[in-house]
């Protein structure tokens, strides 16, 4: 019986499978996601073509299809037009049928035409990678069997399931359903775990949605993005050039004067960090006020939801939710003020038709209201906001 060209101990085959699937994950996150879909970095032709070739062997993914579907996901996130939103479709459907949802959207020519621009369109893409998906996957099967014998079939099966389960299912599903959030994006994106190793850094999905064009997905000191490690290694050898990164908060301490245009620009750029910081700063204030609101005879279920609704944009709430929230904040001057200050702050970067001078006036007015609110947490927040640069 043919046992393959390479004989390994049992654990050796597991290592081989993990290495091969990790190369596929690296190809997806570096080439398809950060390079092609978001143009966060440029790749030298050598790694670029290697990633294309490897994805042809292990997934049959067409670059234009993947980039177009992902760009549409960002453009239509959490709406009925989102190709794979667990908020709209349900977490179970996205986890179970993530690959099917991808295949369905890949047949939508309107999506490909509108969102698939700038992807490879050379002879290889037209005549090999894009038009002959099955031969690449079949070639990977042959290579695995020749190298590892019958166990090569098992390794191949793991390779074929890796992206549908981890990317189409876990990232698109759990990445919008469960985890923690660093940034208050206008979607349900979450960081699944702070250590992006198993899925190449894609675990840090909320960070990505906050700054989609950043080549680095980690943001906090305790977060790790192995995809970024690979990109930095490629950069050392001049095989990659990073174009975009998430902005870093820069403060000019002790700045007590009126906000200027530089402050306004910094506030708009760092809006997700600012919104998250406001929510965190006022968490204790909200808890105290909500405890005092127990006289309204609200159930624990309602109280838990109202605490969550306080941090949401008012447009995200239903009429029923808005009525329940109003019944609480109207009875608490502190809750009423802090809630409306939160909503008013968000409108500053949402009013795209206003001039810079109008937005600057609104920002200074907001700081004036906050610093005269009599609420220590809000006053501290406003004084810090003036220091953004």
Could you characterize the architecture of this molecule?
With 389 residues, this protein is mostly helical. Helices cover 62% and strands 3% of the residues. It has helices at 10-37, 45-58, 63-75, 86-89, 91-106, 109-115, 123-129, 133-148, 151-174, 205-210, 226-236, 261-269, 271-281, 283-292, 300-309, 319-329, 333-350, 356-371, 376-385, and strands at 41-43, 195-196, 224-225, 240-242. It has a two-stranded antiparallel ribbon. α10 (205-210) links the parallel β2 and β3.
Question: What's the gist of this structure?
Answer:
With 389 residues, this protein is mainly alpha-helical.
- Percent helix range: 55-70%
**Radius of gyration from the alpha-carbon trace, in angstroms:** 25 Å
**Low-confidence runs of at least 5 consecutive residues:** none
Helix/strand/pairing category: mainly alpha
The largest sheet is: 2 strands, antiparallel
- First CA to last CA: what distance? 70 Å
The percent range for strand residues is: under 5%
Strand order of the largest sheet: 1-4
Mean model confidence by pLDDT: 90
* Quaternary structure classification: single chain
Overall strand count = 4
Q: Summarize the helix and strand pattern as letters.
A: HEHHHHHHHHEHEHEHHHHHHHH
Shape descriptor reads: elongated
């Amino acid at each position: 019986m043919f046992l393959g060209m390479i004989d390994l101990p049992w654990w050796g085959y597991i290592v081989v499978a993990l290495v091969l699937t990790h190369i596929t994950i690296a190809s997806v996150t570096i080439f398809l996601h950060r390079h092609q879909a978001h143009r966060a970095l440029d790749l030298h032709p050598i790694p670029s073509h290697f990633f294309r070739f490897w994805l042809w062997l292990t997934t049959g993914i067409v670059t234009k299809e993947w980039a177009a579907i992902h760009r549409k996901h960002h453009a239509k996130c959490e709406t009925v037009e989102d190709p794979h939103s667990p908020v709209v479709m349900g977490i179970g459907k996205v986890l179970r049928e993530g690959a099917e949802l991808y295949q369905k959207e890949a047949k939508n020519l309107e999506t490909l035409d509108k969102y698939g621009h700038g992807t490879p369109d050379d002879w290889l893409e037209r005549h090999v990678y894009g038009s002959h998906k099955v031969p690449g996957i079949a070639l990977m099967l042959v290579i695995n069997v020749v190298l590892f014998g019958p166990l090569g079939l098992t390794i191949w099966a793991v390779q074929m399931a890796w992206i549908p389960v981890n990317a189409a299912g876990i990232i698109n599903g759990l990445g919008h359903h469960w985890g923690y959030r660093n940034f208050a994006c206008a979607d349900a994106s979450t960081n699944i775990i702070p250590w992006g190793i198993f899925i190449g850094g894609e675990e840090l999905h909320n960070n990505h949605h906050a700054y989609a064009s950043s080549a680095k997905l980690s943001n906090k000191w305790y977060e790790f993005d192995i995809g970024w490690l690979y990109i930095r290694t490629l950069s050392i050898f001049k095989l990659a050039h990073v174009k975009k990164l998430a902005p870093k908060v820069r403060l000019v301490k002790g700045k007590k004067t009126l906000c200027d245009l530089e402050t306004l620009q910094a506030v708009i750029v760092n809006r997700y960090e600012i919104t998250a910081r406001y929510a965190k700063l006022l968490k204790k204030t909200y808890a105290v006020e909500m405890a005092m609101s127990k006289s309204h005879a609200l159930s624990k279920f309602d109280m838990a939801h109202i605490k969550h609704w306080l941090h949401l944009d008012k447009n995200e709430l239903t009429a029923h939710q808005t009525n329940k929230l109003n019944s609480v904040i109207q009875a608490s001057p502190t809750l009423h003020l802090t809630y409306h200050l939160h909503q008013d702050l968000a409108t500053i970067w949402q009013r795209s038709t206003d001039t810079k001078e109008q937005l600057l006036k609104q920002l200074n007015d907001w700081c004036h209201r906050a610093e005269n609110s009599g609420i220590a947490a809000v006053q501290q927040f406003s004084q810090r906001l003036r220091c953004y640069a």
